[in-house]
Write a structure and sequence with these properties.
Chain lengths: 116, 114
């Protein structure tokens, strides 16, 4: 069974440019989460999809970030325009069950975004 | 609100020595607690989780953790460190607000000396 995959693994862009990150969850997983780790600090929650619906987007830092999950399969996270403080590692995770607190989340390897 | 504090951003042990990684949590509801490990260039892998069934939780690779409500702690231990245990370890809590949302600590990098 394929795990959670993320593309690209690394991205280096200039301030003001646009970047789109992609996450493919484990097949059949309805729940998809985005997290971000900035400057080696804690991994912070960004948002949670249940199928194609946003269950919780309380962690999205501002309106320069747009997440989509059309069709309830893969998800994209677009940053437009990118700022220096957006640099970090963006993780995607998925879980199979009902999005309960006890569910195991399966993480992808992350996308390392560097904004210069 | 929920939060996690991992004491010690870097821990170094000798091969064969006890591994102890500390985690304290705060939660307004009964928590679910997780330990994840991240090896270089890989995603986070679940080591173990506490879901109120038993306070002593055994995980993969010989790790275990004990939930202590009175101390609000969930420390991770392994009796004998192996070189392959060198990685970054994250403690996480969920259960508050959005059930699926996890709150992570800053991570602890474990170095194992030969």
């Amino acid at each position: 069974e394929a795990g959670v995959t993320q593309f690209p693994s690394h991205s280096v862009i200039e301030k003001g440019q646009t970047v789109t990150l992609r996450c493919d969850p484990i097949s059949g997983h309805d729940n998809l989460y985005w997290y971000r780790r900035v400057m080696g600090k804690e991994i912070k929650f960004l948002l949670h999809f249940v199928k194609e619906s946003k269950q919780d987007e309380s962690g999205m830092p501002n309106n320069r970030f747009l997440a989509e999950r059309t069709g309830g399969t893969y998800s994209t996270l677009k940053v437009q325009p990118a700022e220096l403080e957006d640099s970090g590692v963006y993780f995607c995770a998925s879980s199979q069950d009902s999005g309960r607190a006890s569910d195991e989340q399966y993480f992808g390897p992350g996308t390392r975004l560097t904004v210069t | 609100a929920q939060s996690v504090t991992q004491l010690g951003s870097h821990v170094s042990v000798s091969e064969g020595a006890l591994v102890l990684l500390r985690c304290n949590y705060s939660s307004s509801v009964p928590p679910y607690l997780f330990w994840y490990v991240q090896y270089p260039n890989q995603g986070l892998q679940l080591l173990l989780k506490y879901t109120s069934a038993a306070t002593l939780v055994k995980g993969i690779n010989g790790f275990e953790a004990e939930f202590k409500k009175s101390e609000t702690s969930f420390h991770l231990t392994k009796p004998s460190a192996h070189m392959s245990d060198a990685a970054e370890y994250f403690c996480a809590v969920s259960g508050d607000t959005n059930a699926g949302k996890s709150t992570f600590g800053d991570g602890t990098t474990l170095t194992v000396k030969p």
